[in-house]
Amino acid sequence: MKNLLVGQSGGPTSVINASLAGVIQNGIKSPEIGKVLGTVNGIEGILSENIISLDHFTDQDITLLKQTPSSYLGSCRKKLPDASDDEAIYKKIFEVFKKNDIGYFFYIGGNDSMDTAKKLSSYATEKGIDGIKIIGVPKTIDNDLVLTDHTPGFGSCAKFVANSIRQLYLDTSVYKMKSIVIVEIMGRNAGWLAATAALANADDIHPVDILCLPEVVFDVDKFVDKVSEVMKTKDTTIIAISEGIKDETGRYIGERKDLGTGADGFSHAALGGAGRIVEHLLQSKLPEKIKTRTIEFSTLQRCFSATASKVDVDEAFSAGFMAVEFAKEGMTAVMPGFKRLSSNPYKMEIVPFDVKDVANYEKEIPKDMLSSDGFGVTEKFIEYAKPLIEGENPIIYKDGLIQFKTR
Amino acid sequence: MKNLLVGQSGGPTSVINASLAGVIQNGIKSPEIGKVLGTVNGIEGILSENIISLDHFTDQDITLLKQTPSSYLGSCRKKLPDASDDEAIYKKIFEVFKKNDIGYFFYIGGNDSMDTAKKLSSYATEKGIDGIKIIGVPKTIDNDLVLTDHTPGFGSCAKFVANSIRQLYLDTSVYKMKSIVIVEIMGRNAGWLAATAALANADDIHPVDILCLPEVVFDVDKFVDKVSEVMKTKDTTIIAISEGIKDETGRYIGERKDLGTGADGFSHAALGGAGRIVEHLLQSKLPEKIKTRTIEFSTLQRCFSATASKVDVDEAFSAGFMAVEFAKEGMTAVMPGFKRLSSNPYKMEIVPFDVKDVANYEKEIPKDMLSSDGFGVTEKFIEYAKPLIEGENPIIYKDGLIQFKTR
Fold first, then answer.
1. Per residue in A327-354, pLDDT tens?
2. pLDDT for A387-403, tens place per residue?
3. From CA B21, how far away is CA B222, in angstroms rounded?
4. What's CA A196's distance to the chain center, in Å?
5. Beta carbons of A191 and A211 less than 8 angstroms apart
6. Which member of B172, B174, B303 has the closest CB to residue A170?
7. Cis before B287? omega within 30
8. H/E/C letters for each residue in A367-405?
């Protein structure tokens, strides 16, 4: 009877631990699986043999793990070299697998982690090492993995973005004056997350009129015109800016310190990102003076479990759980991903994708989800994203503090 | 039968509408009170006669209002002049009161609003205008009103601060490396709110080791020594900085752009506040390079109703409700405030304070709540603040979005 090893990698999300919980729970309950083990700090923990037992997890631990943001097992940013360049590292990894009698290895992460799963499984095939199933489990707030409909972590982040904007809109529209709030949202290469700002608009309030996404070249003049136009008829607006917006030469706006230089010759945006540069732009270019504030959601957006989406938490758990099912069925080199059957009512199926087809590709927002003026999304995007923020994960608090499962 | 008029003033909080809900609910159910009216944008709405009916509020409206951040009636920052300098404005206000047959006026706000309540009631007394009860209802996230044990709005903001820090701590401690997160917290003159960062420390994790509060002079060398000392034994720490910290000359650190000037001669902190300046200080002065990130909670901390403290919401409601009770009992020129009977179990009584004794005073954190090294709080502060973040206000969502009562 072979043992199970699980690790986590890449940037934290609110629900990467829910996927871990799914792997652990299925691992513990499966009679064909021996010990359930975790590697601390991903691949690094294998190399340093920092492997811990997870067999003691109770149902209460699982519940708490599902509301604990970030990576319970710790993370790493290690990208495996090609085996042809550095075979030693592969030998070491498979030696540790053998020593611990590992028959199932699960790696929860984003693009780089799928690359790791791909490389390890290819190496095993090449070397004729069998008896080990290697499965990638997806997570990333960026929602930029290909093939899968979406990624665990995205929905909870989107929910934080949309609800924060709704609350900020009321906060900023309290006085009888014109005001703008610029919110800077994560996403270096794809605007999926920034686009979810549009979910804040509903029947009651319409906070967001302008989205700036990396998929559309940021044109200063067009942008200033758009803001002027919106402010003609509105007192308050929220402008959602992706940190990854670029100019026509492909340079990040967040690096265009020249755009943020004030009358005093100082760069007012050197430590800030795209949001503060755009704020400065508006201050110097708008025909009328409008009170403007920039808010960076920063890492808070990816770790705010307290308001996680239940759909996201449950799906993240299921992805981990199904990963173990797929491995037990004999699959390897796959990633459980989501296939959408219907948006309304929302129906999703978890299916295995080949990690080779996922690793190292990035998915941008398709053109038909972007509005023609370049400052918004279409109804197709809203239909796509709306179900992913549905439902509230019940949170256990003690003395007013969200409770965690920690190592 | 006289009518009731209510207004809101000053900066938004998560629960200022809960106080409004308390006033409206008691007003509607009181047979001795006629119409329940609201003035839009505080005193400005009286001057422009922008007065709306609130009589139609249902129980469902009240429930939604209690989870709607910011001011339902809108706000203003108008401070009344002395009647001896500008009597016209007083004449106008009392003329509008008379025209609308107002017998009860409630003004929900912070220090300036208590000043307004004081001035209006003094003017009424001087001029022999009777038949109108004028009551201030406290709110401020800053918790700096005197006499009252604490202020509505503070607890929910503190809860956001403490829980955000707990989640950020897990997020930042995920890699095997040293890292610091600086969180900048609101509070220009008093450190109450920044001090609540210490509530994040519990049996499971201890994120916060250093607090920088306006009550203690910010000494660069002492601060750098303290951080060095902490980082000797810890991989990750959160430093909580009040936006209002000052140097030995009383200048705000957030204005000491010289401290944030980098090797390139640019001021890297010109648009940021104290947090980014302190980040830059650490980068240039710490003996080892430590990954440091600054997060400004900005206005999100005062409007994040989704995780409001139930104690705070309920108390804010009660303050509004009791304000109407006091008025019905014949009181005027008072503010319902909190008198603590016991911290454990938490017992609070709502009592009337004279607005004259509240307006224009500010309450700093007392010395015995500050630790001797100047970088923390004592157990006395924890005992004081802990009950205020207790309990979760149940939130109504629709399609994943927090629902509001809006005008």
1. 999 999 999 999 999 999 999 999 999 9
2. 999 999 999 999 999 99
3. 47
4. 12
5. yes
6. B303
7. no
8. HHHECCCCCCECHHHHHHHHHHHCCECCCCEECCEECCC
Residue A272 has pLDDT above 70, yes or no: no
Contact B176 A44 (CB under 8 A): yes
Instruction: Give the Cα separation of B24 and B8 in Å (integer).
Output: 13
Name the 3-class secondary structure at B139.
coil
Which of A76, A181, A299 is facing B171, going by the closest CB pair?
Answer: A299
Burial B176-212 (b: 16+ CB within 10 A, else e): bebbbbbbbbbbeebbbbbbbbbbbbeeebebbbbbb
Q: How many whole angstroms separate alpha carbon A199 and alpha carbon A161?
A: 9
CA distance B282 to B291: 10
Contacts of A383 in chain B (CB under 8 A): none
Q: Mutating which of A165, A167, A392 best tests the B interface, going by the most B Cβ atoms within 10 A?
A: A167
Query: CB distance A406–B163 less than 8 Å?
Result: no
Residues contacting A172, CB < 8 A, separation 6+: A179, A181, A236, A238, A293, B299
Name the nearest CA neighbour of B212 among B234, B235, B199, B193: B193
* Among A350, A315, A356, A319, CA closest to A334: A356
Tokens, residue A177: 């004056």
Count of residues for chain B? 407
From first to last of the 407 residues of chain B, give the pLDDT tens digit: 999 999 999 999 999 999 999 999 999 999 999 999 999 999 999 999 999 999 999 999 999 999 999 999 999 988 899 999 999 999 999 999 999 999 999 999 999 999 999 999 999 999 999 899 999 999 999 999 999 999 999 999 999 999 999 999 999 999 999 999 999 999 988 999 999 999 999 999 999 999 999 999 999 999 999 999 999 999 999 999 999 999 999 999 988 877 765 544 444 444 468 999 999 899 999 988 899 999 999 999 999 999 999 999 999 999 999 999 999 999 999 999 999 999 999 999 999 999 999 998 999 999 999 999 999 999 999 999 999 999 999 999 999 999 999 99
pLDDT, tens digit (0-9, with 9 covering 90-100), for A212-249: 999 999 999 999 999 999 999 999 999 999 999 999 99
Written as six digits, the tokens of A193 are 């997350």
B225 part of the active site: no
Q: Which of B55, B86, B101, B142 is catalytic?
A: B142
Task: Tokens for B1, please give them.
Answer: 């039968």
Q: How far apart are CA A161 and CA A150, in angstroms?
A: 17
Identify the burial level of B120 via C-beta atoms within 10 angstroms of its C-beta, where 0-12 means exposed, 13-18 middle and 19 or more buried: buried
Q: What is the CA radius of gyration of chain B?
A: 23
Give the tokens for residue B337: 């405030």
Cβ–Cβ under 8 Å, residues B38 and B3: no
Question: What are the helix and strand counts (H, E) for chain B?
Answer: 13, 13
On whether the pTM is more than 0.80, the answer is yes
Show the tokens assigned to A300: 């808070």
Q: Is there a contact between A37 and A377 (Cβ–Cβ < 8 Å)?
A: no
- Is residue A160 over pLDDT 60? yes
Instruction: Report the alpha-carbon distance of residue A176 to residue B66 in Å, rounded.
Output: 23
- DSSP type of residue B179: E
Give the ipTM of the model, two decimals please.
0.96
| DSSP structure string for A209-274 | EEEE-TTS---HHHHHHHHHHHHHH-SEEEEEEETT-B-TTS-BGGG-GGGGB-TTS-BTTSSS-H
Chain B, nearest residue to A399 by Cα: B390
In whole angstroms, what is the distance from residue B307 CA to residue A164 CA? 11
Sheet holding B208-212, edge to edge: B208-212, B236-242, B179-185, B291-296
Distance from B246 to chain A by nearest Cα, in Å? 22
Nearest Cα of chain B lies from the Cα of A127 at a distance, in angstroms, of 31
